[in-house]
Specification:
Blueprint (H helix, E strand, L loop, with lengths): L3 E2 H4 L1 E6 L13 H20 L2 E11 L9 E11 L3 E11 L6 E14 L11 E2 L3 H20 L9 H8 L2
Parallel strand pairs: 1-7
Antiparallel strand pairs: 2-4, 3-6, 4-5, 5-6
Helix pairs in contact: 3-4
Bound molecules: coenzyme A (COA).
C-alpha cells in the first residue's frame, strides 16, 4: 500500500455559530464543537484510508477560547499518523474576525479513528508520510499518545507502553 501525505487527508469545514448551538453565555456549546470536529476528522480518516471509519477514541480536547454566537468557525482536520488500522487525527479550530478577516486559533483536539470492513473488523491502511515540520512533530508524538489512550482504555499494560514511559525517564 502506497503511503499518503497528511495534506491528502486535509478536511476543512467552515460554518456559523447559530443561536440553537450556544450555551447560556451565548458561546458555542462544547458538544456542538465536538460533533463538528468528529465529522471533519471522520472525513479526513476516510480520505486517508478510503475505507469505512469509526471513532475509537477522543484523546484530547482543549476548549481554550469561547466561540461567540455569530462567529465563523473553521474546523481543519488532518491525519497525523497511521498505524495498522488506526489513525490519529489532529484537529485545529479557527475563528474569523469579522472586520479584519484574520483567523485566530480557538481550540484543538486529537481523535483516533479505525478503518473497518463491512462487518466492523479492523483493516490495514496505508502509512502516513509527514512533510512539514509541524506534521513531523505531530507524527513523532502520536505513538506516545496512542499508548496513553490504550493504557487509559485498559487495552495496554503500562509496563508495555515503552515510548510513553521514555517520556518520563528522560533526563
Ligand atoms: C474501534 C474498534 C473498531 C476497535 O476494535 P477492537 O476490537 O478494539 O480492535 P483492535 O483491538 O484490533 O484495535 C484496532 C485498532 O484500534 C486501536 N484502538 C482501539 N482502541 C483504541 C483506543 N481507545 N485508543 C487508541 N487506539 C485504539 C488499536 O490500537 C488498533 O490499532 P492498530 O491496528 O493501528 O494497531 C471497536 O472498538 C469499535 O467498533 N468501537 C465502536 C466504534 C463506534 O461505534 N464509534 C462511534 C461511537 S458513537
Amino acid at each position: 500500500m502506497e503511503a499518503r501525505t497528511a495534506e491528502q487527508s486535509k478536511t476543512t469545514l467552515t460554518d456559523l455559530v447559530l443561536p440553537s448551538e450556544t450555551n447560556p453565555l451565548n458561546n458555542l456549546f462544547g458538544g456542538e464543537l465536538l460533533a463538528r470536529m468528529d465529522r471533519a476528522a471522520s472525513i479526513a480518516a476516510r480520505r486517508h484510508s478510503r475505507r469505512i471509519v469509526v471513532t475509537a477514541s477522543v484523546n484530547h480536547v482543549a476548549f481554550n477560547k469561547a466561540v461567540p454566537l455569530g462567529s465563523v468557525v473553521t474546523v481543519e482536520a488532518k491525519v497525523s499518523r497511521a498505524f495498522k488500522s488506526s489513525m490519529e487525527i489532529f484537529i485545529d479550530v479557527w475563528v474569523e474576525d469579522r472586520e479584519s478577516g484574520e483567523r485566530s486559533k480557538a481550540n484543538e483536539a486529537i481523535y483516533t479513528f479505525v478503518a473497518v470492513d463491512e462487518t466492523g473488523t479492523p483493516v490495514r491502511i496505508p502509512a502516513l508520510e509527514p512533510e512539514t515540520e509541524l506534521e513531523k512533530e505531530r507524527y513523532e508524538a502520536a505513538l506516545r499518545r496512542k499508548q496513553l489512550s490504550l493504557v487509559l482504555a485498559g487495552k495496554m499494560k503500562p509496563a508495555d507502553a515503552t515510548e510513553l514511559k521514555a517520556l518520563f525517564t528522560k533526563s
